Amino acid sequence: MTENWFGRTVEVTLGPPGHGGFCVARHDGRVMFVRHGLPGEVVRAKVTEDRGGSFCRADAVEIVSASADRIPQVCPISGPGGSGCCDYSHATVAAGRAMKASVVAEQLRRIAGVERDITVEALPGNDDGTGWRTRVRLGVDGAGRAGFHRFRSSTLVTDLSCPQVIPGAFTGLDAERWRPGSELAVAVDGDDVRHVVEIAPAAVSRTGRRSPGRRGAAARRAAASRPRPEKIVDGTGRPHEYVSERQWELDATGFWQAHRHAAQRYSDVVAEWSDVEPGAVAWDLYGGVGVFAASVAGGVGSSGRVVSVEFSRRAASDGAAALEDSAQVEFVPGRVERVIATLPSPSVVVLDPPRSGADKEVVSAIEATDARRVVHIGCDPASFARDTALYRAAGFEFAEVRAFDAFPLSHHVECIGLFVR
């Protein structure tokens, strides 16, 4: 039986970065996933989680031999035991991008079986990695204080000093007391207007309240995903956002790219790579408020058709309002996997699925159409690589990939892939 290492501190040399914001190390025949270190560093790592088996999780609590890429921690609330948001804030911006590129390349190689040189590109306005985030979801603890979740924990850090957010986003929020167990959605829109919405606590089942295991966690996630009462605290709760001189009005609790410049950059790539022709049919799956539908609408022209599928009826309605002058765009509310078989066959498919990615059912449905090009946006390297493997198995060539540093100071990275046949 494997000895439980929880709480144990050992000296290790850190290897390459892994998917999830850690570096890989080995000690006594076991793998350690060590956060807050950099490749090549010698650190003293304290084990924070050990469920047995071949690996455990740890934090670098002392740097014995530092990397040249190490800098003073930019985020005052991250680090061992702190908030889980800024897990690369101890690295130079260039080193952070290099680690992300390494992770994307490794996931593509291991899961999809493809070799690609990856460069993680900067987005405008984040030279030092700070002041880019316009949307944040905060938790509220039992004392009514807003804060960030600690890594893999339900407890909160109630210091709102995260450097990712644009200046002024959190002003005054730490002086208020909120409903315990609620959440705060904070959005600063394209007009620099702040919107704050308090979301009521989730109605968690008895299983979710009492079970510490997977069933309880699943019950808590299900409760959190259900619609909950909302209270507008600041602003109108309806941010205005802009892409290519078009305005969207949407809910502050709805989806919009967190990085101020991400939506425009991704839209530009989609418009270029979709390469639609006048009169063509295009799909925009997981379409939100239709930013990518707008990107391809001009290409298909008035004789073409763009079908945007989005589960949220409110988002689909907001998209239809923003694109009311584009008669060729149709919004279809519903789950992608349920409605995809009813859609007209496309020549181009654009999709921006959730972090879990598209699944085999959706890719198989795309395979059965006349689609010659697929533009896939993914915010998780592992699910992006898995979907890449599915497209290749369906007969698509992995033609292009671009990766963007849309989440500076963190390990997260956005990938856009072009698949053709």
TrEMBL record:
Keywords: Methyltransferase, S-adenosyl-L-methionine, Transferase. One of its GO terms (biological process) is rRNA base methylation. InterPro entries: MeTrfase_TrmA_AS, NA-bd_OB-fold, SAM-dependent_MTases_sf, TRAM_dom, U5_MeTrfase_fam. SUPFAM superfamilies: Nucleic acid-binding proteins (SSF50249), S-adenosyl-L-methionine-dependent methyltransferases (SSF53335). S-adenosyl-L-methionine binds at residues 257, 286, 310, 352. PANTHER family: RNA M5U METHYLTRANSFERASE, TRNA (URACIL(54)-C(5))-METHYLTRANSFERASE. Belongs to the class I-like SAM-binding methyltransferase superfamily. RNA M5U methyltransferase family. This is tRNA/tmRNA/rRNA uracil-C5-methylase, TrmA/RlmC/RlmD family. It comes from Rhodococcoides kyotonense. The lineage of its organism: Bacteria, Bacillati, Actinomycetota, Actinomycetes, Mycobacteriales.
